[in-house]
Amino acid sequence: MRKSLVSLTLLLVAATAFISCKSNKKADSDLPRVAIAGLAIESSTFSPAVTHAEAFRARRGEEVFSYYPFFSEDSTLIHEAQWLPTLRGHAMPGGIVTREAYETLVQETLERLEAVLPLDGLYFDIHGAMSVQGLDDPEGDFIVRIREVIGTDVVISTCMDLHGSVSPRLAQNTDLITCYRLAPHEDAIESKRRAVSNLLSRLKSGKGKPKYKAWIPVPILLAGEQTSTRIEPAKSLYGAIPALIDNDNMIDASIWMSYPWADEPRNHGVVVAYGDDKEAVGKAAEQLAAHFWNVREEFDFVAPTTTWNRALEQALASNVQPFIISDMGDNPTAGGAGDVTWTVTEVLNHPAFKKADSKSVIYASIPGKDFVAKAVELGVGAQIDGTAGAEVDDRLPHPFASKAKSQLLNIAKTAIK
Ligand SMILES: [Zn+2]
């Protein structure tokens, strides 16, 4: 009797386990299958630098989740789909991407996508200003190749930087596309979350792809320093978007400023809107495009701009401390090499800084790994002969030669690690 009771208990436990396993499986299979993929870089074709595959620091499989706070274990989004992360790479801004690096990363992404078919959705996370050797519109090329693998029925939701470019084929092959609404990009994660939430909402409701999409090119191309949304006219332009959104009728609208440091036909402003109401979508896109065009003359730099000599004259004549001069021509956050030595050479050669009682100047910064290594080796207070800079962009002057006293050695040690 006892034996049969034990057997019955075991049987019940086994049956419960079987049922719960099955019901979990059923619950899982009810959830949409959504892959994650993307390559992000802003690459200047005016820099002599080239970007290789390692620079993308690709995350693969489950590692991809770590990039997104909204995919943490205790988030709600992580439980709302069968997430199938493939490959996601994010490089610092830099020079043109080698064709080999692009092909290697794209090929691996396609293979990983093929391995997780069939899919209901894809979250495609890109920057939108990648330049690749011998290829126009890399993101457009990438999404077409993805479509060839996953098919045309899968709903693709794309998130981009507002300094990216949206070519017709990128717009055509993505169903939901959005970009940041703030520059500086304080809403980057919020925008990525919006792309994911809108995708899930369309998949879960069964509504799928929006019925209508409007893509309007706006023939304007501005430097990033002119597009801050902290000041007008970009503040009101981007600020007009939320009022246009109306659930499924008008799901989202976005404005791309594009990227001026790559000479490609796709590089110009674009407005995209989409939703299920034809009139609302058309009206929203036209309204934003007209607003963008009407304020085109009002975009200005966030600080006064002038030539080097005039900037220096003003700095020397000013009693304001510190007086900051920014060299926009070599901006590493927009793809510049960040090691051009022209400005530092001008500073060192200027008579105003040669006298013992002259004004002091801090130049930040010129990278020089060997220089720093030497400083660490010789110690605090040592005199160093060395050069720095112009390792990547050596088209102007030459590496900056210096006899410097080694100070701040702790910082140097940290930097070299
Ligand atoms: Zn940007």
What does this entry look like structurally?
Strand 7, helix 3 (138-150) and strand 8 (155-160) form a beta-alpha-beta unit. This protein has helices at residues 2-30, 99-115, 138-150, 168-173, 188-204, 234-239, 278-294, 308-317, 342-349, 369-378, 409-416, and strands spanning 33-40, 43-44, 50-51, 59-60, 82-90, 94-97, 121-125, 155-160, 176-179, 212-218, 252-256, 269-275, 383-388, 400-405. Mean pLDDT is 89; it is low at 1-26. It folds into three domains: 1-30; 32-298, no CATH class; 308-416, no CATH class. The chain contains eleven helices and 14 strands. The termini are far apart. It has 417 residues and is of the alpha/beta class. A six-stranded mixed beta sheet has the order 4-5-1-7-8-9, sandwiched between helices. Zinc ion is lined by residues 161-163, 185.
In which range does the helix fraction lie? 25-40%
**Number of contiguous helices:** 11
Shape: globular
Distance between the termini: 71 Å
Q: In angstroms, what is the radius of gyration? A: 27 Å
Number of domains: 3
Strand content: 15-25%
Spans of at least 5 consecutive residues with low confidence: 1-26
Number of strands: 14
The major beta sheet can be summarized as:
6 strands, mixed
Fold topology:
Blueprint lengths: L1 H29 L2 E8 L2 E2 L5 E2 L7 E2 L21 E9 L3 E4 L1 H17 L5 E5 L12 H13 L4 E6 L7 H6 L2 E4 L8 H17 L7 E7 L15 H6 L12 E5 L12 E7 L2 H17 L13 H10 L24 H8 L19 H10 L4 E6 L11 E6 L3 H8 L1
The chain binds zinc ion.
Question: What's the short version?
Answer:
This protein is α/β, with parallel strands linked by helices and 417 residues long. The protein has helices at residues 2-30, 99-115, 138-150, 168-173, 188-204, 234-239, 278-294, 308-317, 342-349, 369-378, 409-416; strands at residues 33-40, 43-44, 50-51, 59-60, 82-90, 94-97, 121-125, 155-160, 176-179, 212-218, 252-256, 269-275, 383-388, 400-405. The protein has 3 domains: 1-30; 32-298, no CATH class; 308-416, no CATH class.
